[in-house]
Amino acid sequence: MKTRLKWVENVSFLAQSGSGHSVLMDGAPEGGGNNMGPRPMELVLMGTAGCTAYDVIHILKKSRADVRDCTVDVDADRADEDPKVFTRIHFHFVVTGKALKPEVVERAIKLSAEKYCSASIMLGKTAEITHDFEVIEAH
User: What is the pLDDT of residues 94-134, one digit of tens each?
Assistant: First the structure.
């Protein structure tokens, strides 16, 4: 896996993935940025949410669950001192589907957290990671 990062100006950078997709990162105005893109550490959380949601959906579909939607809200804290690593990350899943069994959703989240999600397992080396979920019946 490869990526390339190019400095644009001030504290703006354009990152390009090996698959050819680009993301503009920028800083806050008080830090010399123009607020034209997410901060790098925000992208870390966004990528981790994507990684775990991918796993959960894949596991649910593999178990033939009729899943229709999934959102993940992430709330995190960082250390006050440099390096300002994540110290706490909470994932709240909202999974919508037809006749979804909470225990199946819980199992999918647990498998992602403990076995499959490389990003959250890596971040778990410095952060306390917690999860909860709710299941919504699709109409």
Answer: 999 999 999 999 999 999 999 999 999 999 999 999 999 99
Q: d(Cα 69, Cα 43) in Å, to the nearest integer? A: 22
Whether the full predicted model's pTM is greater than 0.85, yes or no, is: yes
**CATH architecture of the domain with range 40-137:** 2-Layer Sandwich (3.30)
Longest dimension (CA), the chain: 51
Which residues have a Cβ under 8 Å from the Cβ of 139 and sit 6 or more positions away? none
Which structure tokens are listed for 23?
């993301």
Domain(s) labelled CATH 3.30.300.20 in the chain stretch across 40-137
- As beta bridge partners, residue 72 has 93
Q: What is the DSSP string of 82-106?
A: SS--EEEEEEEEEEEEES--HHHHH
Which residues of the chain fall below pLDDT 70? none
- Out of 1.10.3210, 2.20.25, 2.60.40, 2.40.260, select the CATH number for domain 1-38: 2.20.25
